[in-house]
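Slide 14.
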Amino acid sequence: MSAPELHLVIPGPLAQNTGGYRFDRRVVEGLRGRGWTVHVHELPGSYPHVDASAILAAGIALSRLPDRALTLVDGLAIPGLAAAMSLDQHRLRMVALVHHPLWLESGYDDAQATALRNLEQGALACTRRILVPSRATARDVAGMGIPEAAVAVIPPGTDPAAPATGSADGIPTLLNVGILTPRKGHLMLVEALSGLKELPWRLIVVGGERDAVHAAFLRAAIERVGLSDRVELHGDVDETDLAAAFAGADLFVQASQHEGYGMAVAEALAHGLPVVATAVGAVPELVPDGAGLLAPPNDAPALAEALRRVLSDAELRRRLGKGARTAAAALPTWDACIDRFVEELAAL
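Slide 15: predicted structure.
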């Protein structure tokens, strides 16, 4: 009997260092470890803002897949693939992996968001199954008019990790992990921290500069509020340096405007780090009351108050760290995640 076969279609290189691509890589590795043959098709072009050449290349890539090929389309590729998915929906067995609906990204005006929502809705209707990482994302997809029965929730796994040892000099180190895009809320985080200068802390931000304009705004904002000596932008780092950043942190912070899951939040819990974050998307699913403090989205004063409470109270940090370790014990493993992928894909 031949090995089960899957075609994964993604925008750009699989090696990209974001939560979504890390999820994709672990799925590919896990399925191959179970005996599956997985072909990865990396689409050229700039996503999600695709041009005609990117759409043409995406259509050609999909057209070259064999008839009835089991095809997993990463939702990030939909802006380039939507038309081709409509054409090939009966020829291919297509499944979508939606990390979060793209139309919920920050920075779109109403007309752009509506157009993207309609594009995603049409593309997802061409698939036989939609896989999402959280109940929150399942609700977002259902809100686009997709039947709930078409959606399956498969959370990413989380690797076990040693408890963070914290900063070596006693100054609380705040860690933020996420690419520098408006959705990740770095500007609001800087605004919140600008009111806490009387407290000892430093912030380390790990994440690539996907949006050069936003990165420039962020650097300017850090300088304008006088935090250049307390905020470090480390850019992309490898897995070893990322693990070291978690190990040296005392607190994990996030000010996102939306999170389809929050792999960095889950990783922080695995390291026993208290979490201060915005209550958006799947974050409330991940962070129970005893593991962190959640603030409303787009509310810098509320985020500042949550940070003040945790930074001013070492005993609270200790209790929340203990709660984080308890919460981490309930997170799914990568084996459990791959089990669910095998179950869903094999059914097709």
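Speaker note: DSSP finds 13 helices and twelve strands in the chain.
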